[in-house]
Amino acid sequence: MRQLRYIWKTSLLKIFNSKFGTFFFLIFCVSMSYMRPMTNFVADVQYPVSWCVFPFLIGSNVFLTVFWLGIVYIHSDIPFLQYHNMYQIIRTGRTRWVLGHMAGICIRSFAAVLLSVMCSILPILTHIEWTNEWGKVLKTLATGDYVTSYSFPYLVYYDIMKRYTPLQLLCLTVLILALVSTFLGIVMWVFSLYVNRTCAVAIDVLMCLMLFLVLNTVVQYRRSLAWFIPTFWAKIAQSATPSMGYYMFPPVWYMLLMPVVGSILGGVLVLVKVKRMEFHWVNEDC
Predict the structure, then answer these.
(1) Which of 147, 149, 168, 167 shows the shortest CA–CA distance to 157?
(2) No. of H helices and E strands in the chain?
(3) DSSP one-letter code for 82
């Protein structure tokens, strides 16, 4: 019970701070801009749209890049060597301190993803069809030329609608994004402890930008490359649609399992290091 209370308090500190507030403001502004064509379209056709637009919105290369860089930014308080953490580690011990921060990274990642989902819904809130069906609007956008004529900055894929319901696709998208975001946080923590903080941020930024490597490589090798670039998996709504006859995504079970395994292994490396290291506390904000 004490560990759960510590995780809860640590998670609140990780969410209610200036960095997370900046992330929210950025995602909100970008979402408002990117959802404007949808707002105009549903206003013109006078028909409500499904609430499940986020899986297609996150498939936009620019929006996805902004999201991933925002995740790196909110995780930049890692390796948690601010002075207030000194008192936490004295009270809790090193093992509980590490476990608490690992859980905090995970909860913060889920919060960031859910916040992004909310930002995608707000612009169309008065035009939403609250059902677990894809509805006429998204199917029309997936099969017609309206995406081009209304200058949509993202695509709506019809094939994925035959495989998942809106709720299923949204849950899958949220899970993949949150697990990969957690993995990025743990990777940053590992490199911060074993190398330095600058290297850790650089590694995470590189992982974020490597999704373009998949998109720009020879089409026959995109799927093989995608197995090793988890930031690309956020485009899961595209997974049922082949590109030039080739599918680009690894199996769903792998996309869910790999970040979990990677985060656990990274957590073990963090714990081993923290058990033996001498801390050098810094005076900086979260």
Answers:
(1) 147
(2) 15, 2
(3) B
